[in-house]
Request: fold
Amino acid sequence: MANQKSSVGIRGMEIKTLPKHDQSHISYREINEDILRFMTQTGPGYYIVLGALFLLTILLYALPWAYQIYTGQGVTGLNVPVFWGVYLVNFVFWVGVAHAGTLISAMLYITETPWRRAIARGAETMTLFALVIVTFFVFIHMGRPWNFYWSFPYPNTRQLWTSFQSPLMFDVFAIGTYFTSSVIFLYFGMIPDLASLRQSSTGWRKSLYRVMSLGWRGTDRQWHMHGKACMFFSSFIMPLVVSVHSIVSWDFALSVVPGYSKTVFAPYFVTGALLSGFAGVLLMLTVIRWFFPIMKKYVTAYHFDRIGIIILVLSLTWSYCTLMEVVTGLYANTSQELEHLKFKLLTPPYSYLFVLMIFSNTLVPLSLMIRKIRSCEIGMFFICIFVLIGMWLERYLIVPNSLSRKFLPWMWHDYFPSWVEVSITVGAVCFFIFMFMAFIKIFPVVSLFEVKEDAGIPMKKGH
Amino acid sequence: MKRREFLRILGIGGAGTGLGFVLGKVTQTPGAKLIPYLVPPEEIVPGVANWYASMCAECNSGCGIIVRVMEGRAKKIEGNPGHPVSKGGLCVRGQASVQRLYNPDRIKGPLKRRGQRGSGDYAEVTWDEAAAELAKNLSDLRKSGEAGKFYLLTSQLHGHLNQLAANFMSGYGSPNHIQYELFQNRNLLYANQASMGLNTIPHYNIEHTKYLLSFGADFGSTWLSPVNFSKGYGRMRQGEGARGKLVQVEPRISVTGANADEWVPARPGTEAILALGIAYAMVEKGYNRAGDASAWRAALSAYRPKEVAAITDVKEERIFEIAKEFAQTRPSLAIGGEGLSSYENGASGLVAVNVLNHLAGNLGVKGGVLPNPDDPLRAAVDMNKRITALASAAASSKVKALAIYNTNPVFTTPKAAKLEESLKNIPFIVSFSSFMDETTALADLILPANTPLEDWGDGFAEPAAGAPVYTIMQPAVSPVFDTKSLGDILLSLAKSMPGNMGPKLQAQSFAEYVRNGWKELYSKNRAMASGTADFDDFWDKTLQNGGWWSQEPSRRGLSVSTGAASANISNKPAKFDGDEKQFPLYLITYAHPMRLDGRGANLPWLQEIPDPMTSVVWGSWVEINPKTAESLGIKEGDTVSIESPSGRISAHAYLFPGIRPDTVALPLGQGQVYGRYAKDRGENPIGVLPLVENPKTGALALNSTRVKVSVASPTGRMVKMEGSTKELGRGIVKTVSPEEFSKMKKEA
Amino acid sequence: MAGIFDKVKDTLNSYRTPGYFKKLDHKWTMVVDLDMCNGCGACVAGCYAENNLPVVGKEDCGKSRAFSWLRIERYVDGEYPDVKVKFIPVMCQHCMKAPCEIGCPVYATYHNQDGLNVQVYNRCVGTFTCATYCTYDVRRFNWFSYKWPKPLDQQLNPDVTVREMGVMEKCTFCIQRITAAKDKAKDEGRGVKDGEVLPACCQSCPTNALVFGDLQDPESRVAKMVNNPRKYRLLEELNTDPSVIYLKRVMNDGKSEE
Reply:
């Protein structure tokens, strides 16, 4: 626990970090009470926001989608040859947002990075709901969403089987696995907390937690098993950090479309996903800290500092990949690649979008070199916003943009999202926040038992 | 579960079932029941198609078609593979004619005007009422001794319908049957008559020619007989022997020009002079194969290539080159199309083309100009029966009744003709149109006639195939709406008229009339009778084959005399209205490959299938050279105003390098007021044209004005299907040079 | 050892052959002679009539949603007065190694035993992947439920389904005509004769630029035409192995080498 190292980096290229914030003065009881208070003591403002979000979800998300299902995909801006538009952009973007959850809960768990504890639950929750959004976007983008289940390989009277050579089929499995394991991991990690809350809550909460804690009593044996299981799931999920977004990138990279068919895509997408994922987590933490000062006790400047460094590293890696993407195209020196690049880099409005993307994803995160900015809440908030916008633009510049300039110039056609697409995109954000806000009022957003590990009172470790 | 609860659930379930049943009944579409044929019609086998041979009437080329009919509905029209004109192919317009048959905007039954003329307020009436009304009006007129004040205005009619109309008019006592269409080949008929003594349009044997010199003939999409010529074009390019070469002379690249090996953008209005310059070059260099060189040199002395080059904007060397190649490639062929004919002196240009063919020895040879036999039912076209004659007669109230069929002159004549105003003077107008259009809208009575797929008829194809081609048109389906054949209308009208209408209108129906007519032809023509038992046998075979044709070529000899030529040619470029300074650009209007003169505008396929040269759909445009556009500050898609001394319209700019910088081009056919697909599609280019008529033929000159083009306030948007027309070195349409190709051919 | 390796390789390769069929029944092929094609568009009209293609109207045409399964592309080179215009009809190339077939997760598009790239409308869920992967942009999507105003619907070909909203479609080489010809041949106990199957476009072509036939039949016209030295295939460098063969246009455009 007494890891007092206050810098990261190698060979003298250390970046100064904040010293670990000591939380050993917080007592178990305090933690339990804080979290329960956070969950139960809800002001009217919260309900108003929640209600507003629900309304917005209905108006901006559900109704336009219903309209789209009823009328047809024609209400979008899609055309020949740009068949993949904003929905696919959102799909890739939200898979990316979902990524930090895995990384924090699995990779950092295995490497026993201590600062992950306070934020892991929040990140996992984000993952879960981001994946819900992802799944919905898959359905939204389909021409006949009512037949979505045809893409699952199950024995059926139609004697149909799915095509395992299709990258979309890989997606079904990648995202299916990711979703399932995320749910299990989230729930599993929550069991001891639910048990703690069972003790101190009343009413419907008590019944809910009683059922959901699956008879957890905190015996040695249970803790032992729990620790083992967490380790197992972490190891299981860890490859997903790399695989899920690699597979998503193959949706594009396995085609022959100029702008899609690039070998750099898998690492490029994974890096981008983690970048947007961490930005998303940090944004969430900032907002939670603002509205619930109680959480400042658990989510400290130290976390900001650490995540800031990760974002910096990811941003640099991402920038390298972006450079490679462009250079590979230039190096190919075929009319197809050059026209695609010309369209992406030099044709307004896409050239502006490209500049904005580079500004948000490369230049803005460079400021994270400065420690003051890393520990500045407002600064981090805006950096995260920029990174998220930049990452969304990156996907936009890849997905519909490449399709606008395919092989036969006769069929070149531009794409502009329609109001339905814009509305559903915004609505999805509302839907996400709504789900997240509802969730954190029912389940603990901070992992009680893990924070208690930090609280400095000796207890048995799980392994 | 308690008993009460059980009953409640049972009740809800029962009510639900009942409600479902009621809903099902209410929402059931009427007529959703399957009714088996009690006595199935003989020719209908569900799922099995019948093919009926007939004739396409979308243009005047008379292609033989076969119509696929299933369960009594026309499904698809294809070219009749045995027919010598269409040879199994069919153009866009012919294939779309099934949408004329099933057009939702057809007039569904007889209508009688209720409101003001032109207000479009019509009351539905029965056929008996409408026919009685028509008969009463016409018989009153006849009784008052003013039969000559009845005018019949139709499109160019063919075969027995034409004969029946003539019989009707002579029986009624009026000489005024005017046949009018925008593209009627009047100039071509006149030029061939004047220079070669032909009453019909000859067959231009593109198939076997090795050097085709085309003066504004868009034979691949609109000119004369596009399907037949296209079939020939394919064979000319990749048939037997060497590959034929195509040289296109026109100010704007047409669909055919796009396929040419060489494009000669002569100055608009000077193509005829260019043709004569080439002729002079041939004579001067001694290339000519026919005609007396010295006589021709004298006749053509005004067309020395040097002067011609200055007038036409074509280099002198090029004129000599073309002359040499044209004369020395055997066989060669020169044709003059709408582009040439549409000038004010169009007929003389066509004579010039005949001179070229004469000098090169192309007349009457395979791969040249082959004469056609005369139409057995029609003598020469009367050039004096013109639309302007009708307009002036109507303006001076010399027209008391007018019947209109299948033509829309209000749409296709320039404003200066004042046709609409004049027609309003006519006390009684009856229209036999199946569609509401600008002219029919003036009618007091509308008796909708069948569309060609529902009708009987026949045609003696011009320009045919150098041999007699008699094509029959038979109904492929029964009338979709409450319409009747024009032939039937005229026959029954003749019967209901008091007084003698002559002996030729006795047939009970038009079908019978056509059959009787063919019987007469059969009895006169021994070639028809060969191989058939009797007329009934012949008739069955004719209906099955789609007509009768023979391989027997016409033996008529063709030549052009210096006298005939000199009388018709002129060394003055065609006149263009408007001052050169004020109106700097020549205006070329052309028949659109899909909509022709506008008749195809309400067929959705013809709006949706992109124009071959611009890919514009559902709209109208003006083609401008990019350089000209740049100097005028016009960008692609801009709304521009096109102003001539006669009027102003607006259109969207399409920038196209294949047009002379001093020329702009407008396609005809859009800008109609009626029809759900045709309306709101830009403005009618006829609106900027002056009324210039060829004094000898009455053909309207469509390329007869200069215009001024300027950016106008934006209206609507031009929709084109092309993304980019630049190939960017991607090797999409790969090519081989002609030299390499001939090497390939030798090796093979 | 090498023998086993080859055997494994052959087995794996056999799975790579389209449709997993050892041998195709037919290999339907279209030959397009670009020197004969004059760009008139009759083939497009034939396709509209035969295959129940809906008319989408101006607005949707502007969004590039026109339904023509077959389109004529026009490329323009040069400036006035040296302007070269070239036409090329582009329809589904029925690639033997089709990118679209890789993309579909539900096997809505696959290769059948006739060498055709077929689209099963019933199976399509509308992921757009096939159209995105298609290198020729020939796939069309039913953005809406299209309606034919009465009585235009009476023209609809009963041999071809009217596709519902949300499915992808494309040129089928007029598979209904192929099936009909095969049925007829089977009834008469013979093989399909050359020229017996004519897709609507080939049938209507006024210049006979489009020729259709079975490449496996050595006597067929297409089998003879593919030996033409002018032969090339569209975007052949992408290795999609298209079944449509183009014959180069004879033209002086200053670059005849490729």
Q: What stands out?
A: Chain C touches chain B through 73 residues (CB under 8 Å).
